[in-house]
Design brief:
By secondary structure, the chain is of the alpha+beta class. It has three helices and six strands. The chain has a three-stranded antiparallel sheet. Strand 4 and strand 5 form a beta hairpin. The radius of gyration is 49 Å and the shape is elongated. It starts with a helix and ends with a strand.
């Protein structure tokens, strides 16, 4: 009975070991399955996170694009309004000069003294030039000055009356002007050669 009982114990031990191995294998498989599910869930949640992040970035982009479009429209509208009203102050400054011209023309036919007419026209002309100067407009001095392509436009060349006049402006056909030190119209000149 000792042989039989020891075999029986061995069989039972083997069965217990086999069951334990089976249990361990089953547990390992369950753990692997759970681990795979966790990895899959992590991948899904990571994908969901990336999808949400992409949606947030797209939303921010759309909002920023809309804001920029609104800004562009608003500034364009403001520029158009500014352009429409930009000349208002300039024209208001010219109105007194126009009024002086109207008064001078009204009295031109009745006036017998030509010196008074000349003096009145000179006063109006000086008033007009003072207004233009106050706006930053200056006449480009050209006559008998050295020819400068940054200020003058040569319309013709003629032989210089004196050797000292070579390369200089002999006559100014049309005055040039600068506005705040920027040339807005070149002087049209005749240059000596």
């Amino acid at each position: 009975m000792t042989k039989h009982s020891s075999k029986s114990k061995e069989n039972k031990t083997e069965e217990v070991v086999e069951e334990t191995v089976v249990d361990v294998n089953a547990e390992t498989q369950v753990e692997e399955t759970v681990a795979e599910e966790v990895v899959v869930e992590e991948e899904i949640s990571e994908t969901e996170q990336l999808t949400r992040k992409l949606e947030e970035v797209n939303d921010k982009y759309l909002r920023l694009s809309a804001e920029f479009d609104n800004y562009r429209r608003r500034t364009l509208k403001e520029k158009m309004e500014l352009t429409k009203s930009a000349g208002t102050s300039l024209l208001l400054g010219l109105l007194p000069v126009a009024d002086d011209f109207d008064r001078a023309l009204d009295h031109l036919d009745d006036a017998k003294d030509t010196e008074a007419i000349k003096a009145g026209i000179k006063l109006i002309y000086n008033k007009f030039n003072e207004f233009l100067g106050a706006q930053g407009l200056k006449v480009i001095e050209a006559k008998e000055k050295e020819f400068d392509t940054d200020l003058h436009e040569a319309i013709t060349k003629i032989p210089a009356p004196k050797p000292a006049m070579k390369g200089k402006v002999i006559d100014c056909v049309e005055k040039g002007y600068t506005l705040n030190d920027k040339v807005i119209r070149f002087s049209k000149v005749v240059v000596g050669e």
